[in-house]
Amino acid sequence: MPWKPRNFTAVHNPRLDPFMNRAAVVSNGDEYVSTIFVEISSLVTQVSGHLWWTQWGEAREFIILHERMADGFLTDHWIEYMDEQLEGWEKNTMWDMGELRDLRWLDEAGSSAVRLEFGVEPTHDGQ
């Protein structure tokens, strides 16, 4: 049995494509709430075993949502079960602290600037 997963390639979820490496401004009406940056990554978990008897689960994609709050505080959220999140994003909304917020997605240049500001490393597609 391998110490590390042999196949660390997750099945790609095409619903993530419009949001990969994108930034958005989150608002509550006219009130600025935060700025987010969407990073897509993949993970695999150990399902059983120890040392050389380790067995690994299937690799899967998840979202790392980087966020700068209105007060400047930077944080991130790891979102593994993303269907509800994607449904909102497709409607330019997201749930935040129990409230439905509006999203204004930035273009490629704006998203790249936010990525650099947040210190997020470029991903495989070079953005």
Structural descriptors:
6-stranded antiparallel beta sheet; about 40% strand; two-stranded antiparallel sheet; elongated; about 130 residues; 2 helices; mainly beta
- The helix fraction, in percent, is 10-25%
Strand content: 35-45%
- The number of helical runs is 2
Q: Could you spell the SSE succession in H and E letters? A: EEEEEEHEEH
Molecular shape: elongated
Record the strand order, biggest sheet. Answer: 6-5-2-1-8-7
Q: Which structural class do the helices and strands define?
A: mainly beta
What does the model show?
The chain has 127 residues and is mainly β. The chain has a domain at 20-44 and 63-118. The protein has two helices and eight strands; from the N terminus they run ββββββαββα. A hairpin with a 4-residue loop joins β5 and β6. The longest helix has 11 residues, at 108-118. It is elongated.
Helix-strand blueprint:
Layout: E1 23-28, E2 31-43, E3 46-48, E4 55-56, E5 60-69, E6 74-79, H1 83-90, E7 93-96, E8 99-105, H2 108-118
Concise structural overview:
The chain has 127 residues and is mostly beta strands.
